[in-house]
Amino acid sequence: MAYEDIFPKALREALEGITEIPTYGEKGANRFMYNLLKLDKEKRVRLVKKILEAVQILRPCKECYLITDKEVCAVCSDDKRIKKFICVVEESQDAYAIERLGRYKGVYHILQGRIAPLEGISAEDLTIDKLLKRIETYKAKEVILATNPNVEGEATASYLANLIKKKFPGVKVSRTAYGFQFGSLIEFVDEYSLEKSFENRK
Ligand SMILES: [Zn+2]
Hints:
CATH class of the largest domain: Alpha Beta
Distance between the termini: 67 Å
Structural class: alpha/beta
Low-confidence stretches: 179-184
CATH architecture of the largest domain: 3-Layer(aba) Sandwich
Number of domains: 2
Mean pLDDT: 90
CATH topology of the largest domain: Dna Topoisomerase Vi A Subunit, Chain: A, domain 2
Shape: elongated
Helix content: 40-55%
Radius of gyration: 20 Å
Order of helices and strands: HHHHEEEHEHEHEH
Bound molecules: zinc ion
Number of helices: 8
Number of strands: 6
């Protein structure tokens, strides 16, 4: 019997599909797929339908790139949010974490990643051009750099700080202060530390 007969085509194709997700290698794909198959059929079909629904309706906000089910996200379309304050984060989940505190009244800008030369991710791959346009359009007063407190996040923040100071000398650029362990990711940081970090930005 040939290997192809034993290893189902459907499984192979599903695994190959999952490896196309950034950061999911063969290991990640195996972990996801084989564990998914351990769920009873009704449950796993329901789960995958939810994912299908999500991937069909979710998209980046056309202003700030926050993942939303509308053309413009709820933050950008809220008149009460102060557009002169732009908080820059790497991913949507970082903005959701800050939003959960319910304290920040400005808007966000999602970079969709961070500068990571080792992974071949450069400034051009991020949504920096749009950020610069928004700073200009909104006549921004302050840009808060809330990228993750790790090597890539710090490098991305310095890059942006230099760029913004050069192009818009009148705009205040601040960096969130992190009272928590170096290397922790924003989305996993407890609310108290995140709140302190926001208050103590410099
Ligand atoms: Zn938005």
